[in-house]
Design a protein that fits this description.
This protein has 344 residues and is of the alpha/beta class. Helix content is 26%, strand content 29%. The longest helix has 14 residues, at 81-94. Keywords: Methyltransferase, S-adenosyl-L-methionine, Transferase.
């Protein structure tokens, strides 16, 4: 699909907005440059695009922050339906009259269904074209677009408290946004391995809406640095920190890359392996190396992963002490200590 995407982006790029979700990163990694603007809800993609596009914007697909309209919007559809519906709903207001939204996707992406949905939103005909194994759908903004049917995006733009999350704030666009993840719950049960020391500092890598930090905060006096790659996660986590009065900061980062070294007495992590990001490289190694770098001397990290992920074996390259302390419902929790000479 990258060939088709690059071709479409080169057509009138100065008037084009590229909505770059997980499907777009590979093209940027290959060194692609673009004379138009890019919008992404992923920090790594937005940072990678800097200097390669005219303007790179990182937010939770808040089109009003772009402060202009475009003649063309090109969007390889995301994995999550609520995100796709939200973007289709918003794009008419981000297009000039006669402007076009172009959706891209492979056969298994749901592109045919999204093409039909976009036709409803734009009050026009379904325009689907096949390009080898991929498809594109083009929808034109016209006067009739205002009468089109809004799609169900689960009220994507708004945070909401969820009883299923102990009244924490969350929103669509996050993994398990309306339920407590089984792995995270198992990890939280092991927090007795993190006895509070005076003003102990905690880093949460891949914080999501902040569940792990909120659970640990009930056990002692901690200062938190919560970080995530996803804009929706940062919004939700920030709200929960404010609502519960947690001490600390919520920061964007790519697996902790932007954080200073030796800042954590404890590091907690439920890595986003469930989201299929392994295609970007060995994410397990990246998270382990970052954990070793971020821990203070004498600090320890607690990781939870699916049992099929060989974190126990890989962790030996970064930590002198690797111990599995819990295993249940297909998940394992590891305690990692003494990075010492393994720090990079």
């Amino acid at each position: 699909m990258n060939t088709l995407l690059s071709q479409l982006l080169q057509q009138d790029p100065g008037e084009t907005l590229w909505i770059a979700d997980e499907n777009s990163k590979e093209l940027l990694v290959e060194g692609f440059t673009f004379a138009g603007d890019l919008l992404s809800n992923r920090w790594d993609i937005a940072k990678l695009a800097e200097g390669r596009v005219r303007r790179s914007c990182f937010n939770d697909f808040r089109f009003e922050e772009l402060e202009q309209r475009y003649r063309r919007i090109v969007y390889p559809v995301s994995k999550e339906k609520a995100v796709v519906h939200h973007i289709i709903n918003c794009t008419p207001d981000a297009l000039t009259e006669g402007g076009e939204l172009i959706l891209l996707g492979g056969k298994q992406s749901g592109i045919k269904t999204y093409a039909a949905k976009a036709a409803q939103r734009f009050a026009g005909g379904k325009n689907l074209q096949k390009h080898g194994a991929n498809y594109s759908s083009t929808n034109i903004r016209s006067g009739e677009t205002a009468t089109g049917t809004m799609l169900d995006d689960q009220d994507y733009s708004h945070l909401r408290q969820r009883e299923t999350l102990n009244r924490l704030y969350s929103k669509p666009g996050l993994f398990g946004w309306d339920k407590i993840d089984t792995g995270s719950a198992l990890l939280a049960q092991q927090f007795t391995h993190c006895p509070p020391v005076d003003n102990a500092s905690v880093v949460d890598l891949g914080c999501g809406y902040g569940y792990l930090c909120t659970q640990l905060s009930t056990l002692g006096d901690y200062r938190f640095t919560a970080t995530d790659n996803n804009a929706a996660a940062l919004l939700a986590c920030t709200k929960n920190f404010q609502d519960l009065g947690l001490q600390g900061v919520v920061l964007p980062s790519n697996a902790g890359d932007e954080l200073e070294s030796d800042i954590a007495d404890y590091l907690i992590c439920n890595p986003p392996f469930h989201q299929g990001f392994q295609v970007e490289g060995d994410l397990t190694d990246r998270f382990l190396k970052q954990a070793a770098r971020l821990l203070k001397p004498g600090g320890q990290a607690l990781f939870v992963v699916n049992e099929f992920i060989p974190l126990g074996k890989k962790a030996g390259a970064c930590f002198a002490e690797v111990e599995m302390i819990a295993k249940d419902q297909g998940f394992c929790v590891y305690r990692l200590r003494n990075p010492g000479e393994f720090k990079t």
